[in-house]
Amino acid sequence: MKTTLSAEALSPILESLRKANAVLAARYPGESSRRQPVHTVYGGAQVFQADTAPRLGALALRALEEYASGPAAFAAAAGIPEALASRVHARVLEKLRREPVEDFRIDFEDGYGNRPDAEEDGHAIAAADAAAAGLAAGTLPPAIGIRIKPFTEELKRRSLRTLDLFLTELLDRAGRLPDDFVVTLPKVTVPEQVWALADVFDRFERRRKLAPGTLRLELMFETPQAIFGERGEIAVLRLVEAGRGRCAAAHFGTYDYTASLQITAAHQHMAHPACDFAKHAIQVALAGTGVWLSDGATNVLPVPIHRVAKGEKGTEAQRRENREAVHAAWRLHFGHVRRSLENAYYQGWDLHPAQLPTRYAAVFSFFLEGLDAASARLRNFVEKAGQATLVGEVFDDAATGQGLLNYFLRALQCGAMTEAEAVEKSGLTLEELRSRSFVKILKTRHGPT
User: Fold this and answer.
1) How would you classify the pairing of strands 389-391 and 292-294?
2) Can you list the pairs that 119-126 forms with residues at least 24 positions away whose Cβ atoms lie under 8 Å?
3) pLDDT at position 108
4) What is the per-residue pLDDT across 207-228, written as a single tens digit (0 to 9) for each?
5) Dihedral pair phi/psi, residue 350, rounded to 5°
6) What's the whole-number average pLDDT of the chain?
7) Contact at 8 Å (CB) between 257 and 222?
8) How far apart are CA 201 and CA 199, in angstroms?
């Protein structure tokens, strides 16, 4: 066939495109294949113990028994769809008994406060000893880490000393770090802070003969400067890239962020439009990078308003008001988690053991509600071997196929459905699900698309 431009003429253009595409692929490698926890539970370092996670599960089960015993009562209290009441309740109970906490952060910042140096030194050592004991006993959650203080001029030395003390003691006691261990840097404002933490990791790994890249970090976006830099440009990706490949997640700090914008306390909540703006900016900036986004916390806790002495029940009025207070906080938390999931924020913070039931209830019901529709779309798409097809009124393409596969993977990871249910509903084999790639599944079944 006759063409006007020769291969030689096109060669420099194609090479330029190759380089640009390679840079793009390196910067946006796609979503991580690692398991993203549905939450991070924060607890002060001064109270952390080897068995903190199972103890939190026991407290969560006790709250369920006391304030909403049974599927119908829990569904009514939290706002779970009636049709899913029994299934969700049963899975929440199973989850709280088996794996009550998916991710825990030993907190040396807001949940800990500023204490004398000697006291924080002692707590850093004690928390590391507890983590080592939990690692040996198998009582740590699947993911765990510490939150250090911010790298402000006033706190940078204290923050780094706590980090060093904790890591040194943990390695001396346990000989290794827990799986999925991470260090959270709060209130980040400039890339130099992230770069500094990555430098510290480099030096620590060399001194302790750890494999390069062993230590990973998370960034907390809690200030306007973390969203927009000094020149008015989106700062998110610059901050993440300053971690030099070590950044695993970006966590949004609802209350520090809203306070920094002078939003009054009564309106500081996860659903504020200012928070939506910031989280959408982070989400867009990090799309395709493999760095997770975590939403913030509901700070209205499901706790009784009347305290009664041990062994006493209190008056009927007190019990009713306590129940109403817990139920109201549960409904608020359930709604916040549900809203986050609808916006594709698949992780958030929890601050109290009684929030665990509604965290899992919201996650499970979210996935179970859409199960039948997702199953039909995925089955149809696989059968059509990747050709775009109209299913009812929803148009599916290859990207949607991967999204549907991700739906099943997330539902499996969090416990919303079992492996047998996922296989039955998706029409895929367990091996295909575990491949995590819709393109691979189509190629295996139907050849190249």
Assistant:
1) unpaired
2) 120/158, 120/162, 121/161, 121/162, 121/165, 123/45, 123/46, 124/45, 124/161, 124/162, 124/165, 124/166, 124/169, 125/165, 125/166, 125/169, 126/48
3) 98
4) 999 999 999 999 999 999 999 9
5) -125, 145
6) 92
7) yes
8) 5
